[in-house]
């Protein structure tokens, strides 16, 4: 690879140009320079650090993910050598992840050989200088050493050794004080070590000795052949401590590890409370300056106890800018405005408001105080039966958010840049500051530091002012001149380092908040500078050049993937580039709609315009040049991008080498749909006709094919179930395709084979595509199909295609088994047919996605028949002639019956061009086409006859528990049901015999239907609004939609501001700039009429309401819920305040209430495949009852997820939740708390503060808090969860029963009996409604209520409830069941108490006050009994045991496991041994494996 040889002479300047020392550098200073390092596979052990090794962690930057400018902090040296004894691989430091290697810099210099190697944890980037190697073209890279450093050196062609990029298993988050050899890479952020290690709270300030590493369970995983042949070694890492001497503070010691870089000590110092104000310094050992990029172990003389001196270095303009930005970041570190404004991947989190600081610390403090009086009264609006749904508590005001004002203004001075004569005196730039005491000062940043000068706003005088104080740090100078600054800055830094790292790390994709409080807009020089450098298409002017997105996206896909480290590296790089691309595309799309980007075809009308910004191509969702005329015009053009995105997602997931897709992001903003795509090299220089060599550009009139494309697409055809087929072109020639005709193949100038326009990757949905002369199956016609949809691009979802094929496979197996049975019956014994049948094989062949499951569907006799079928199918497929002709006949018949394209094996595929207007098929294929048409009709019928009823059944069984529109949509999509079937789903719910148990589904569905219809109307409504009328128009729409006020009037923008020269309009306006006030005449009556019309046309559902109040009344909806749904769907952000929706005297919304409108972004989500395999095998182990092994596998998965995704991701959240649950079950409450706290924070940050998943996480955390005796915290968390549920759905939801049982039990535990009863009785009512009065859940509910009545000594009520429970147990479980007996015992005990109480009362009545009364025994519940009940209702079905019991239990489980294997019984059937708990635990009598029972979360996370 020629360009991997390094042009050494340029290294240093490049490093200077490219490498800021920390993330916050202005965009103009961040040029990605990334080189691709080719790595060839080499033998060698894969070295993984065990999960509990100390010093483990990775760091993530505050804007580490979000900006399109890759944040690399500093250069870095990496030494790789196969022979090296590095325990973690090259340059793998305490904070290292596998290096993401991208290729962004494709200008000539890169081609000539400047190549850089960044760290994936954005910690640094350095030019790569391979040492001279004996053979420049070294192919075996075993001896190769690659050293990246900033110095010069000779170039060689060695390649780095792949084995050394290793994943690391890392520990919990930490704070700078507690850091164990962990440098953060961000100025203000301790690294987050996301693993099962101790988390910060539990670390002491002194350093900890290295833990003994555990086996990391890698060898137990079964992720295919991933780990085979790689032996797993766990290396223990030894750290040592050094002493740091910094100017002006006491020396302190720091734990470091030999693999760390000097650079990382810099980062720690920039984050520490007492040294955070320094950015420009070097470290000296014995008077010698340490190289930034050397590893500590390579520093001579550095050992335990060495003293490192911090030496201040002279500033450059760049360093001065970095310093000012860093100071600004420190001043803003607690300010949530970025999260409210949705910038830099900041998002909100409110957990700390409810836990009062960190749970880990408080756990130790509160142990002894468990019965201290605590205030348990919830706010009125949380109590059962409250009608009030306030909005303000959604975002409680955090104490830390009233930021201490350190300065009034810190900004660049108008005197910049310094004139030449001042430059020669060392002036770099000038700052203007107004202190909190209102003193205005002008400051010079010079090479020696910062000092006051004598300039004023209007007079330039660069001479130093008095006091003549020169300070190397701006903070020290400000401390001198402003006492308020000194005091407040110190307090601010204290608070900053106390925050949980997860509250500050950037998320991979931006999460927007739909409400925000009123915020003052403060001056901010850095924000202002960013707005004009990086935000508005000025990127062309930054040094270097913009990122070549296409090259980065494709290069990351080309990275090697032969073994685990390589795959991690590759997935990490792919994910990072995708999140950067999404952020850049979103910004670009907003700039396009706001009119800030010049079109590339400015002379055409606005709808037709296309744009290029930051190397991304943008087009609007309109039907340009009648391209979609036959498909539905603009409507089809609007839907095509999302279909295309689904296609891109699918082809990316199949991941065929050599086939490339475009980076694609679809952005909906202000009523417009913008598609952002990366640009194929060379596409802009040629006509589309010239470049397309495969597929059709005119929907099938002219069609081309290409052998290389057929070969590549053939590889995707099996996983995607796409049939290779022939079509006719305009000259009646047959052309072979392996995709739909619209799919185009273009070879770029880079020689890569790209496919684009994947909008018809999946077969058409015939229910919505009426074809003259084609009848649909009876299931469809009965449901009123086919219905004409507004466009002809309706496709089936991939999930549906997969489910349908799976269904057909089961059918195939059953048919074949049946025929074999009949054959067997007709001729009792035939040796030939059995010669293969003797050993039923369990190996499943690739075509058998359902192998084993299919067998288990049948009972007894036919199971062996199925095994024979499989055996037979394999024999015939391998075609070795041994199969008997009769058996071949069996398989052939079965294949024909299920529509398989092969007659010897099961293989169902779809032709995506069937029923495509304009596509013709050759005569010779007519039979195939007829079969394909039938298959499509069957699939359409399958959706209606299997999938929708299956969904409804799952909802009745509470297997899925959607709580809002988004979770309902997710549940539908997982079953392959498109949203356009929502009306059909609701019809089915209405007709269901268990209609009452589906009440919640019906409400959510109706709410979703109304808000989706309103969204469709809002989209076209917004397109007619110009920018100045936006807030007025949106508030008017919301008034018409939600307010009871009968005739809201729209406020037009003030007339006096409209200029007289209005008629000379610019021709080239942004798409939305029509001078249009048509929106102002909308009325509520008209809007609701349109909504009902839309619901009928789009969803085929009749809404019976004419106003919002009727809708609320008829369907039991909440206006606040509708407001949340419409805001989330359209990107509106409204002011956080109480809205009076029901007032008939004034409208609910004014234009001041609409704060912002955000984009709604759809993008590809790259997956971490290896991590997911580990996660699944971990879950499987847990299901079998092997908690310890499961825990280790899931820890391993967590490591790998962290490696790929960074610290924040939905899947990491699921991992942490499961880990917390496992630790809780194994009795380690502190670890459970720590993991669950991270899960809650992460769910708030990446999914949203009121997402149903977040509500679940709050409930789990409350349980673990209660178990750790933090009662008041547990209650406030449960109250928060209840409030969020009320806001998101309302009271009448099955999940509310679980919540109220939890709250009631905790209140019972703290002896608040009356309150407890209110919640428990509500839970009883809800359970009875949703589970039926005879359900075991209801019996348990009765028992809980009875216990509270017993505590109140109201024995009559207690008896009544316990009898109800007893009756249920008796009828459901029988007399002899343990639960029934228990209940009967409890009834006896209650009766005795009641009798005793009655005696006492009689005694008092008879003898008056002189009566001799025996003291009554009232039972205050013990915490242990409350916890036991809490575990039962939360689906944790056994009590944590003592260590000894646990050991015995594990031994017993292991023994059973061996027995199982011996008798080869079904593994999953065996429940976990839980002797201490009665077998029929009331929560679930199903044989649910104990540990694994997670209360089914509303959104089924990975």
| Spatial shape | globular
% residues in beta strands? 5-15%
Q: Unreliable stretches, pLDDT < 50, 5 or more residues?
A: 1-236, 361-371, 534-544, 831-861, 1056-1068, 1464-1502
Please give the radius of gyration in angstroms.
34 Å
- How far apart the termini lie comes to 40 Å
Tally of DSSP β-strands: 29
Can you describe this structure?
The chain is α+β, with helices and mostly antiparallel strands and 1502 residues long. Helix content is 41%, strand content 9%. The chain has 43 helices and 29 strands. Strands 8-7-11-9-10 form a five-stranded mixed beta sheet, with helices on one face. A five-stranded antiparallel beta sheet has the order 17-18-21-20-29, with helices on both faces. Strands 2-5-4-3 form a four-stranded antiparallel beta sheet, with helices on one face. Helix 12 (549-558) packs antiparallel against helix 13 (564-593) and helix 32 (1187-1205) packs antiparallel against helix 33. The radius of gyration is 34 Å and the shape is globular.
